[in-house]
Design goal:
The complex is a heterodimer of chains A (118) and B (109).
Chain A lengths: L3 E4 L2 E4 L5 E7 L5 E7 L6 E8 L2 E4 L6 E3 L9 E3 L8 E8 L13 E2 L3 E5 L1
Chain B lengths: L2 E3 L3 E5 L4 E8 L6 E6 L6 E6 L3 E5 L2 E6 L4 E6 L8 E8 L5 E3 L3 E6 L1
Parallel strand pairs in B: 2-11
Antiparallel strand pairs in B: 1-3, 3-8, 4-5, 4-9, 6-7, 7-8, 9-10, 9-11
Classes of the chains: A mainly beta (118), B mainly beta (109).
Chain lengths: 118, 109
């Protein structure tokens, strides 16, 4: 099992450019999500999905789009990059959980994508 | 609003014990997680508490008091490799995780 695979690991963009961060998981997880991590702040949820064809907004969705055409893949698109989107992005997945002690709902993270927008 | 508080940074000595506290105010509660994150790496799961009390896992233990909105992570017999950030996260009523900013733990020889 490869787990959660994110690409690219590093990317530099100019303001206004668009790009897609790729995320794939091979654990048959229903739930997939994208977070951004900025210094001094907790991980913030951008978008998430509970299954193929279903996506929803998280805490900070503006400027980002997602789609979930398959269980395995959950790409994150930056439509028109801005310097405020300079951050480290993590894709994470887990099984859907009822929240019982028998199912921790542990999140599995990709290695992260460090994005700089100039 | 929803809020998770934990100290920004802590320093401890190799071989010692350290306790990292986390207090939370969230809309609903479906469990509290602790994750470890080494610099430049992804977070990795350490523990999960949904009932009050202490969960022990090797050198690491995690405690939860739901009535007080409080948890702590206890690390024993500290090793240099324990130098990392420790993230507290609460699963809210929608099973979404609310994350603290993390506690950077510095281990000195």
């Amino acid at each position: 099992n490869a787990g959660v695979t994110q690409t690219p690991k590093f990317q530099v963009l100019k303001t206004g450019q668009s790009m897609t961060l790729q995320c794939a998981q091979d654990m048959n997880h229903e739930y997939m999500s994208w977070y951004r991590q900025d210094p001094g702040m907790g991980l913030r949820l951008i978008h998430y999905s509970v299954g193929a064809g279903i996506t929803d907004q998280g805490e900070v969705p503006n400027g980002y789009n997602v789609s979930r055409s398959t269980t395995e893949d959950f790409p994150l698109r930056l439509l028109s990059a801005a310097p405020s989107q300079t951050s480290v992005y993590f894709c994470a997945s887990r099984h859907l959980t009822s929240g019982t002690e028998l199912n921790t709902g542990e999140l599995f993270f990709g290695e992260g994508s460090r994005l700089t927008v100039l | 609003g929803q809020n998770i508080d934990q100290p920004t940074e802590m320093t401890a000595t190799e071989g010692a014990i350290v306790q990292i506290n986390c207090t939370y105010q969230t809309s609903g509660f479906n469990g509290l997680f602790w994750y470890q994150q080494h610099a430049g790496e992804a977070p990795t799961f350490l523990s999960y508490n949904v009932l009050d009390g202490l969960e022990e896992k090797g050198r690491f233990s995690s405690f939860l008091s739901r009535s007080k909105g409080y948890s702590y992570l206890l690390l024993k017999e500290l090793q240099m490799k324990d130098s990392a950030s420790y993230l507290c996260a609460v699963s809210d009523s929608n099973y979404q995780l609310i994350w603290g900013a993390g506690t950077k733990l510095i281990i000195k020889p």
